[in-house]
Write a structure and sequence with these properties.
Layout: H1 9-32, E1 43-44, E2 50-52, E3 55-56, H2 57-73, H3 78-94, E4 105-106, E5 112-114, H4 120-128, H5 133-151, H6 155-187, H7 191-212, H8 216-235, H9 237-242, H10 247-277, H11 281-287, H12 289-302
Antiparallel strand pairs: 1-2, 3-4, 4-5
Helix pairs in contact: 2-3, 2-4, 4-10, 5-6, 5-8, 5-10, 6-7, 6-8, 7-8, 7-11, 7-12, 10-11
Length: 313
């Protein structure tokens, strides 16, 4: 007796993709996206009628992450990017207290209503702001294949060359990004955020060189530039988190960020595997420069620390 094809992995994948892309995402765009005040209205009935205008802060993070991930990994739909930006901007403007703790609920306009002891809101906010993980995993996992194809090398040579290039240049980026951020943050609370943004900015031309380059200088140079930039970005993730989250919640917050990054990496690795089979790996690798650019703009607009080190809840 054969199994129902709809219950097998490909059938389940197609089923949930349709429900997400053709049902859930359009529903919340049509009824939940607050085009007047920003963010998402979170209490709706099945027909989209508003039951309560108070906004759950955790949902702002969840909605922002969902639309940012759809835009980064499924299709470059402008309405998805608009929704992600709206949710992220609303969180930054209205959902953080002066001490860095997030509210649990706010009014539709963004006035504070309730704070909880646990970090439910912060967890989804961390997920929302973890989108830059996609290019890092994509480059680390697929650079050997690109080296092999672009430089006409066998994998025995391309694999170690790509790995050593990324690891060595990332070490340089970590050291340079750490020193620069330490000095900058003494003069400006946003020094670490700006250093991180500089690192991400370096990965944009790097991805274009890696994806579209054909000679040794372009591909190898792009890989080195990417490693330096990603190292600068990665070195400042935990210090930036410490500016928003108290010591008692940092392990959970950083764990959630890493978990989201790993899951995102698995997804983008799978998508680029299909791209490789179709012969478009270089082009699609270069196109990752688009979500990185969006992430840089969001980071500079939304991540604004008020203290150098959060010490309380």
């Amino acid at each position: 007796m054969s199994a129902d094809p709809a219950l097998e992995l490909p059938g389940l994948r197609d089923f949930y993709r349709r429900r997400l892309v053709d049902d859930a995402a359009p529903f919340w765009l049509a009824h939940g996206l607050d085009r007047l005040h920003g963010g998402f209205i979170t209490s709706l009935d099945r027909d989209g009628r508003i039951l309560d205008t108070d906004k759950a802060v955790w949902f702002q993070g969840r909605g922002t992450w969902m639309y940012a991930t759809l835009y980064n990994t499924v299709e470059k739909r402008p309405e998805w990017l608009e929704a992600a930006r709206s949710g992220g901007a609303f969180m930054t403007r209205h959902c953080f207290r002066a001490d860095g703790k997030m509210y649990f609920t706010v009014t539709r306009e963004g006035l504070p209503l309730r704070v909880r002891r646990y970090v439910y809101s912060e967890a989804f906010a961390a997920m929302a702001f973890a989108a830059p993980s996609f290019p890092g995993w994509a480059t680390k996992n697929w650079l050997p294949t690109l080296f092999s194809a672009s430089l006409d090398l066998d994998m025995v040579t391309a694999g170690p060359l790509a790995t050593i290039t990324i690891a060595g240049s990332s070490l340089v980026g970590v050291i340079a990004g750490g020193v620069l951020a330490d000095r900058w943050s003494r003069r400006h609370l946003g020094g670490r955020v700006y250093t991180s943004a500089i690192g991400l900015s370096l990965t944009v031309p790097a991805l274009l060189c890696i994806g579209f380059g054909s000679g040794l200088a372009a591909v190898l140079g792009g890989a080195i530039l990417f490693g330096v930039g990603y190292g600068m970005f990665d070195a400042n993730n935990m210090p930036i988190l410490c500016q928003f989250v108290s010591p008692r919640h940092r392990a959970a917050g950083y764990g959630l960020m890493n978990m989201t990054g790993v899951f995102a990496g698995a997804l983008i690795t799978s998508l680029l595997g299909r791209s490789t089979d179709a012969g478009h790996l270089g082009r699609d690798m270069a196109l990752l420069a688009v979500p990185v650019t969006a992430a840089i703009l969001l980071q500079l607009a939304l991540v604004r620390p008020t203290v150098a080190n959060r010490t309380d809840d």
